[in-house]
């Protein structure tokens, strides 16, 4: 099965398309609900990280998401031309002592690593390429 | 609308979230949750009808909880479904906002201290 690709901008209506697009792209695999849930959590985090931190006004603000079923895993690639950011090297924030010390950012990297154990990153031709593998 | 706000006896507010608190859902709850955070002090956030929540939805809950705590208020999370609880526990938010399993326990946890 060839890769399915979704191109979105940071517009809310575009962002809301992520989940139904992924469900449709993955439908032929009939994935169990918990695995799809993990993919939704990880994809939301990966894309929102780009949207909230990755773009400066001069960047082409587009995100391409590719879904490819491989024999033993489903692969999601998130590609953008924003600031270089290697999530695989990013430090997780220390757990705050209390809710008053909590900052809303920084939760996501932990979630991404929990829901997707197979993460790789490359910067190629001015583009971030984050690859998330989900064993089937 | 994936959020309903009920005023219970004793100055307690119950916020009932429902459905998918994904990117679109989080944008729908952000403003009401900010208002709750700004105006209420004893709050139960009922997650029992939430099917999906990831970092954006959690962000809204944390910001609201932080505003409540900054007024020396109390906030708890009521009965998240397993998939939602996994997100909460993984992010460590359960150590900052307690998870309770019954409405009675939630009411007891957020009841204002006697003056």
Helix share, percent of chain B: 40-55%
Number of helices of chain B: 4
How much of the sequence of chain B is in beta strands?
Answer: 25-35%
Compute the CA-based radius of gyration of chain B.
13 Å
What is the mean pLDDT of chain B?
Answer: 95
Order of neighbouring strands in the sheet with most strands of chain B: 1-2-3-4-5
Give an overview in words:
The complex is a heterodimer of chains A (136) and B (115). Chain A is α+β, with helices and mostly antiparallel strands. Chain A is built from four helices and five strands; from the N terminus they run E-H-H-H-E-E-H-E-E. Chain A has helices spanning 12-15, 18-26, 33-54, 107-115; strands at 4-8, 63-69, 73-80, 118-124, 127-135. Chain A has a five-stranded antiparallel beta sheet, with helices on one face. The model of chain A has no long low-confidence stretch (mean pLDDT 91). By secondary structure, chain B is an alpha/beta fold. Chain B is 44% helix and 29% strand. Chain B contains four helices and five strands. Chain B has helices spanning 23-39, 55-70, 82-91, 103-110; strands spanning 3-7, 13-21, 42-53, 74-78, 99-100. At the A-B interface, helix 3 and helix 4 of A face helix 1, helix 2 and helix 3 of B.
Descriptive keywords:
heterodimer, A: 136 residues, alpha+beta, five-stranded antiparallel β-sheet, 32% helix, B: 115 residues, alpha/beta, five-stranded mixed β-sheet, 44% helix
Which helices and strands, and how do they pair?
The complex is a heterodimer of chains A (136) and B (115).
Chain A (H helix, E strand, L loop, with lengths): L3 E5 L3 H4 L2 H9 L6 H22 L8 E7 L3 E8 L26 H9 L2 E7 L2 E9 L1
Antiparallel strand pairs in A: 1-2, 2-3, 3-5, 4-5
Chain B lengths: L2 E5 L5 E9 L1 H17 L2 E12 L1 H16 L3 E5 L3 H10 L7 E2 L2 H8 L5
Parallel strand pairs in B: 2-3, 3-4, 4-5
Antiparallel strand pairs in B: 1-2
Helix pairs in contact in B: 1-2
Summarize the structure.
By secondary structure, chain A is α+β, with helices and mostly antiparallel strands.
């Amino acid at each position: 099965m060839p890769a399915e690709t979704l191109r979105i901008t940071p517009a809310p209506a575009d962002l809301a398309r992520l989940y139904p697009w992924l469900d449709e792209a993955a439908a032929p695999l009939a994935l169990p609900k918990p695995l799809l849930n993990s993919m939704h959590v990880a994809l939301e985090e990966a894309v929102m990280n780009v949207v909230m931190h990755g773009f400066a006004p001069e960047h082409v603000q587009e995100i391409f998401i590719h879904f490819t079923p491989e024999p033993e895993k489903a692969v999601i690639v998130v590609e953008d031309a924003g600031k270089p950011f290697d999530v695989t090297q990013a430090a997780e924030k220390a757990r705050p002592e209390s809710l008053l010390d909590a900052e809303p950012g920084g939760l996501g990297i932990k979630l991404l690593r929990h829901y997707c154990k197979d993460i790789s990153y490359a910067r190629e031709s001015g583009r971030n390429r984050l690859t998330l593998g989900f064993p089937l | 609308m994936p959020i309903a706000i009920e005023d219970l006896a004793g100055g307690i507010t119950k916020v009932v979230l429902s459905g998918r608190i994904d990117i679109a859902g989080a944008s729908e709850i952000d403003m009401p949750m900010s208002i709750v955070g700004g105006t209420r002090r004893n709050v139960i956030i009922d997650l029992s009808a939430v099917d999906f929540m990831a970092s954006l939805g959690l962000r809204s809950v944390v910001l609201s909880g932080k505003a409540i705590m900054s007024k020396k208020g109390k906030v708890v999370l009521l009965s998240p479904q397993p998939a939602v609880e996994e997100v909460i526990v993984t992010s460590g938010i359960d150590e900052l906002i307690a998870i309770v399993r019954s409405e009675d326990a939630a009411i007891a946890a957020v009841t204002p201290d006697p003056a």
